[in-house]
Specification:
The structure is a single chain. The protein is an alpha/beta fold and 311 residues long. It has ten helices and twelve strands. The strands form two sheets. The protein has a seven-stranded mixed beta sheet with strand order 3-2-4-5-1-6-7, with helices on both faces. A hairpin with a 2-residue loop joins strand 6 and strand 7.
Length: 311
């Protein structure tokens, strides 16, 4: 199987459901859930809050046999969805087929969040290759931009809409992964410090001081300190021994970036459960669990990882 090119063969299924109304949404999701329950397959549904109620009501008593998650909370950082939602459920039911409905992209996702969302959908194909897992991803065609729908055609090997089911002729998840690996826009102003291994303890103090100055409360400021320290430690160990940290305020969030001269070659770094993560990936995994959003650009010229925390 070539997960970066032609549609995959094997037990893993990753269809996109294109819907324009509640009726079309239910016509695609309810049979998916009921088929799984009738076959005694574990079923989880992770969709935005309003959709949870619609689907629960349609399933009636069968809803009690489904695990329900509000994706707007569990998946507000797209980098958290594979390890913390999809793998977390699938790995607890490792024998036999597992079914999951996952809706990570909905109207209201910001332009800053979207590149991470698109990459997430592409990376699902790598994370679950060869596994007996079916992940159905609904897309609100009426409410989402045409670019989002085009990307969905590239990240899902099978498409479902009111006309039926068909293979996607545009399936090319590798193209989506690489096309959104873009240099991150420069902030208008930022506090900055450079660090090496000797200066690593100062990174945490720098982050916490500026985070509180920019309006973060104690708990999110503490989480940001931990996240940035993990990234800086990775820079010292795997990114050339030194790096730069910058912090600023942007659109109601505090953003901290750690950059270094290293390159991250593994597209799933930070998205594997801890026991499966190679050296250098566990720190990013922790960052994904702590942050409201993580954006990354990596290449031969170095790596920059940005951590976003809502004020």
């Amino acid at each position: 199987m070539d997960p970066y090119g032609t549609a995959p063969e094997g037990p893993f299924a990753h269809p996109a459901l294109f819907y324009r109304s509640d009726e079309e949404y239910l016509a695609g999701t309810v049979p998916f859930v009921r088929t799984g329950l009738d076959a005694d397959e574990p079923v989880a549904v992770a969709v935005p809050g309003p959709r949870l109620g619609v689907l629960r009501e349609a399933l009636g008593g069968a809803a009690a046999d489904v695990r329900w998650l509000d994706m707007s909370e569990a998946g507000r950082n797209p980098g958290r969805i594979i390890p913390g939602v999809l793998r977390e459920f699938a790995d607890r039911h490792a024998t036999g087929r597992v079914r999951i409905i996952g809706e990570p992209i909905w109207p209201g996702r910001t332009g800053t969040e979207y590149p991470a969302c698109a990459q997430h959908e592409a990376l699902i194909n790598l994370a679950f290759a060869g596994r007996e897992v079916s992940i159905l991803c609904p897309y609100d065609v009426a409410g989402l931009d045409a670019v989002v729908i085009a990307d969905a055609r590239a990240t899902h090997p099978v498409l479902i809409d009111r006309d039926g089911e068909r293979a996607s002729g545009d399936y090319a998840p590798g193209r989506v992964i690489s096309s959104y690996n873009r240099p991150l826009p420069e902030p208008s102003a930022a506090a900055r410090m450079t660090f090496d291994l000797d200066a690593l303890p100062r990174v945490r103090e720098f982050t916490g001081r500026w985070a509180r100055h920019l309006g973060l409360g104690e708990e999110p400021a503490g989480d940001l300190e931990v996240a940035v320290h993990e990234l800086a430690a990775n820079s010292c160990l795997h990114g050339g021994g030194k790096g730069t940290a910058r912090i600023w305020s942007e659109d109601g969030q505090v953003v901290c970036e750690v950059s270094d001269a290293g390159t991250i070659a593994d597209p799933l770094a930070g998205r594997r459960p801890a026991a499966m993560s190679p050296a250098g990936g566990r720190g990013i995994l922790l960052v994904n669990h702590l942050a409201d959003l993580v954006r990354m650009h990596t290449g031969p010229g170095g790596t920059a990882i940005r951590v976003y925390m809502r004020v």
